[in-house]
Amino acid sequence: MAYFYEEPSRTFGEYLLVPGYSSAENVPTAVSLKTPLVKYRKGEESCPLQMNIPMISAIMQSVSGDKLAIALARQGGVSFIYGSQSIENEAAMVRRVKSFKAGYVVSDSNLAPTATLHDVLELKARTGHSTIAITADGTPGGKLLGIVASRDYRVNHTPDDACVTTFMTPIEKLVTAPENTSLHDCNNIIWDNKINTLPLVDAEGNLKYIVFRKDYDSHKANVNELLDKNKSYVVGAGINTRDYAQRVPALVEAGVDVLCIDSSEGYSEWQSRTIGWIREHYGDTVKVGAGNVVDAEGFRFLAKAGADFVKIGIGGGSICITRETKGIGRGQATAVIEVAKARDEYFKETGIYVPICSDGGIVHDYHITLALAMGADFVMLGRYFARFDESPTNKVRINGQYMKEYWGEGSNRARNWQRYDLGGSTKLSFEEGVDSYVPYAGPLADGVQTTLYKVKSTMCNCGALSIPELQQKAKLTVVSSTSIVEGGSHDVVLKNATPSIMNG
User: Fold this and answer.
1) How many C-beta atoms surround the C-beta of residue 204 within 10 A?
2) 118 lies in which domain range?
């Protein structure tokens, strides 16, 4: 006979937090949102990979490209580059993120002294970088002869076939420093000499690294930015359970920090096989999350399989119609509560803490706080991030309002059959996602900072200054349908809202 749960499954919209005692120390600026991204053992000083904010972006074509990955890492979170593209393209996106920001940058834009302006413009178009090192042999580690920046030429005045040696800034006029110069000293040299780039060379004059002023300025402006040990942005990438033997090595070689299996349902042999292959070939050095699951059984299966974190949620996404088409899923709040309890029990039994991620069901900003209070270590967001400038989709104007395109990985548009583990089909038999629009919301930084200030303010109302403290102190109440109505504006006539002004 089928198993029946006694209680109905509930959504975040059916809960509210009850305030706790707030001391004078409970102010938003004092709140820490640091949270573990991957598993760690009891007694370890810290998690091997920790985020500064509890937000990651969904593994979706319409959400997580390299531009959004950079923008989110600047705020302290992690983006998971979508895997429903060629292995080469996904690896290239990861490389662009890893090379975009670093203390010591190995130049990826180099030309020989025989190159022309045409070569400069072609290279700039390919890499997106305007600073080009001219080395004797055209390699990143060759003898430095000069630097070409945009200010060194004018496209309409410099002949296309002009040799770079005629307009580059030669080595004699460059400020350089020895290869072992500390970042602190590099920044002082940049500041004192009012320059934008500082090449670091060895005793023979060979180029080793370039330190950029913009990287220093960026760090000062983004105090929460998430960096690896080499001062590069942290980035994740999605994989599937079909071509992992080819995709994983390419992503690891590109420098990815963490992987996540993108699948419609995680409680499967396919996911355990994928994790097992990674552990066999890389041990614990390659971090990989898995999912999605909605109950304790599914969590334990993936935790025992070796997952570094587990994603929770089936059918709760704004563009997901899995529940409608297949009748499978669970209310997101109920799923998070049960899996969080299983995570804590597993930690007591094994001494291994496996973080859990709430994926889906976030409609309002306060739902993030609810998910954290219910036990989630962080949340994965799709629609939320799709609205921003940095998402990879087009901005369009519909009925006078700017929108961004947004489609699900289960939609026909995505053609992401790799995420469906049902026996090797190479096409979608039916859709589990829709193609849609979401209201345009401007730059990611502005939106994330506003959202997190709300989260911190609510945490202060609960008397908590950290996510673990919130999970200990939170008091949650189920709300009735009439109390939900009561919670919004009611019994008044609203004035017309002032139209928002957006740049075209």
Assistant:
1) 6
2) 110-221
